[in-house]
């Protein structure tokens, strides 16, 4: 077998070209509980969990329930429901690796939508939302700032957005027709969007909202009458989210003055029945600026940075009326704050970034995709309900794949973005945080000690892939034909990509017999001479070849041995972020890919060709030769290269 082809069908190609976003949503409001009626007539108390991707209810003893709309009862599930949708990825320019500048005066369209059975709770919603979204220093009832106030504060005036409010328009169906749950997600929110757009098209010039000149309006917002599901748990209500019409229908919505595609929506009312604050609105709108969700989009109760970030549940602070400020990372991404690289020394009177204060960055010198951002947070203005004050540190472990797929914090063992309060003695790679104090005026003092320019000593591993999570058949188990290499590809690291890829037994399979393919390895960061080593084999063919392309420089192809994993290595220079591509002919198997930083650059550009390595012989403790592949041996202690090695 050849594994799974990544491109499922033509629609995916269309979506990748035209949509280029991942599904985004607000997380369930913490603390929403209710008694669920089960099929047998009993009830159970559970907490609302998930988001627009997959919504469900979780009991204190971790039992999982989902609503069954046909019977109006809840059914117990064996596992968290998985989204049925394929993932749509953002392009590299929109996924957090580089600054995505958003500045100047901009206009965004906001459409007010009511349903056949649900009107707005106020008599003049258009006037209300012109104030709620655009008011200057807006204060009224629970409101203590408008959406425009919020973005002006985050950008320090660099981004001045005006929300053009139109409607309300009444739709032809009741809210449940658009919002009822179907396989863990809302049934037809896109019908709400397209029907509303058609009703307002005659009064809207969509070109006014096209920021980049591609003919498509940016980030259209919808506010729908009544409640949402995220904070009430009402299964027939629409869950606030950001998404794309291209995903739903395969094309943009076209009008004489332009096109519509990406949109976001938020409810009129909160769970108390009051007009909702701007928190959810600003969270969803921020997705349109390129920011991903920072809660775990695949697991309940794991909010990642939680109240530290508006892209998690920080949007719910102050009951949704006072979402927290953007972090320095988020401000840097959209181009509103520059980061100053931190050096050893004392830092005095550091103000918050909202008061023109600096934010600092310290990089992992062997992998600049990993870094800490340090900033001062003060409980004032939009941060009045922030969980801490003083030095806040954001630890970034950037991976283009997780950012693109909106799964930044889905691995609890390796968050992409983690936030916490800085503590004395904390290690930041080569540095140590030695002192912090908050001054009476709210500014911050802190000290850093350590080495500013570390020199690598010995070999440092900058990338390692064992494929041990690949639980299929084929390769290391000695099987090469039949139903092999067809299991779902499950590597240690995200970022691998080939049109055909699958899992063998603790190895990865790539490509298709007698065809040419490219295999992209996850990016890594290193400065100096590197050595790559891996095992590879051709599958059922003597004609399989592999050549390596590193940052555009190509090496010569190597012929892989049929049905036998053999070791190869090569050296190359790396200067920062490095991309490796394998050019493949035929189906190949890979295992144990490792890249180590060996020393300073040789100042010779290009690739040193990959060459075979002879596996070392393995002996048991009695000195008897037992083979060359430890994976095929029983657990125990063996001698390899004159040293004792434990095989687990």
UniProtKB/TrEMBL annotation:
Pfam families reported in the protein's UniProt record: Peptidase_M6
Entry GO MF terms: peptidase activity
All copies of domain Peptidase M6-like, residue ranges: 128-334
Signal peptide positions (record): 1-25
Domain of life where this protein originates: Bacteria
Keyword Signal: yes
One GO-annotated biological process of the protein: proteolysis
Signal in keyword set: yes
This protein's UniProt keywords: Signal
PANTHER family registered for this protein in UniProt: PEPTIDASE M6-LIKE DOMAIN-CONTAINING PROTEIN (PTHR41775:SF1), SECRETED PROTEIN-RELATED (PTHR41775)
This protein's name: Peptidase M6-like domain-containing protein
Organism lineage string: Bacteria, Pseudomonadati, Bacteroidota, Bacteroidia, Bacteroidales
């Amino acid at each position: 077998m050849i594994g799974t082809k990544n491109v499922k069908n033509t629609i995916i190609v269309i979506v990748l070209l035209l949509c280029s976003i991942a599904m985004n949503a607000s997380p369930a409001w913490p603390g929403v509980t209710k008694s669920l009626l089960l099929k047998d007539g009993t009830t159970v108390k559970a907490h609302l969990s998930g988001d627009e991707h997959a919504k469900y209810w979780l009991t204190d003893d971790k039992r999982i329930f989902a609503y069954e709309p046909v019977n109006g009862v809840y059914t117990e599930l064996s596992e968290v429901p998985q989204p049925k949708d394929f993932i749509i990825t953002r392009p590299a320019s929109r996924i957090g690796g580089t600054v995505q500048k958003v500045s100047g005066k901009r206009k965004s369209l906001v459409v007010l939508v009511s349903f056949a059975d649900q009107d707005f709770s106020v008599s003049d919603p258009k006037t209300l939302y012109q104030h709620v979204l655009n008011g200057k220093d807006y204060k009224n009832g629970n409101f203590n700032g408008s959406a425009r106030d919020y973005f002006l504060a985050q950008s320090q005036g660099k981004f001045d957005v005006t929300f053009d409010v139109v409607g309300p328009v009444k739709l032809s169906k009741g809210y449940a027709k658009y919002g009822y749950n179907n396989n863990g997600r809302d049934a037809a929110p896109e019908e709400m969007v397209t029907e509303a757009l058609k009703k307002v098209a005659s009064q809207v010039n969509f070109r006014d909202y096209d920021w980049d000149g591609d003919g498509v309006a940016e980030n259209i917002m919808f506010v729908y009458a009544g409640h949402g599901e995220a904070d009430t748990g009402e299964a027939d209500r629409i869950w606030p989210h950001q998404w794309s019409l291209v995903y739903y229908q395969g094309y943009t919505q076209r009008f004489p003055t332009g096109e519509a595609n990406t949109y976001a929506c938020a409810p009129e009312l909160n769970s108390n029945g009051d007009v909702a604050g701007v928190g959810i609105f600003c969270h969803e709108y921020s997705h349109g600026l390129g920011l991903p969700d920072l809660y775990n989009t695949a697991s309940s109760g794991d909010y990642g940075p939680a109240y530290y970030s508006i892209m998690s549940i920080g949007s719910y602070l102050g009951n949704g009326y006072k979402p927290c400020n953007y972090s320095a990372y988020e401000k840097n991404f959209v181009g509103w704050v520059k980061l100053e690289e931190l050096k050893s020394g004392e830092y005095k009177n550091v103000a918050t970034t909202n008061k023109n204060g600096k934010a600092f960055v310290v990089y992992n010198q062997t992998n600049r995709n990993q870094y800490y951002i340090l900033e001062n947070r003060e409980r004032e203005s939009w941060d009045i309900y922030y969980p801490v004050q003083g030095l806040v540190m954001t630890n970034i472990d950037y991976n283009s794949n997780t950012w693109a797929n909106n799964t930044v914090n889905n691995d609890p063992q390796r968050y992409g973005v983690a936030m916490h309060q800085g503590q004395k003695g904390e290690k930041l790679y080569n540095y140590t945080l030695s002192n912090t104090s908050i001054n009476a005026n709210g500014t911050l003092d802190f000290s850093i000690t350590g080495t500013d320019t570390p020199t690598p000593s010995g070999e440092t591993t900058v990338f390692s892939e064992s494929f041990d999570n690949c639980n299929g058949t084929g390769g290391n188990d000695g099987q090469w034909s039949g139903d092999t290499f067809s299991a779902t590809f499950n590597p240690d690291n995200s970022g691998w990509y080939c049109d055909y890829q699958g899992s063998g037994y603790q190895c990865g399979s790539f490509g298709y017999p007698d065809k040419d393919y490219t295999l992209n390895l996850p990016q890594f960061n290193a400065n100096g001479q590197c050595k790559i080593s891996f095992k590879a084999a051709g599958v059922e063919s003597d004609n399989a070849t592999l050549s390596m392309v590193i940052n555009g420089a190509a090496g010569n192809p190597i012929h892989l041995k049929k049905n036998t994993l053999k070791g190869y290595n090569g050296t190359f220079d790396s200067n920062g972020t490095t991309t490796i591509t394998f050019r493949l002919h035929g189906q190949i198997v890979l295992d144990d890919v490792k890249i180590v930083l060996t020393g300073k650059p040789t100042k010779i550009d290009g690739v040193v060709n990959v060459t075979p390595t002879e596996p070392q012989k393995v002996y048991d403790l009695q000195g008897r030769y037992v083979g060359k592949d430890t994976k095929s041996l029983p657990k125990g202690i063996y001698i390899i290269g004159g040293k004792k090695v434990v095989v687990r």
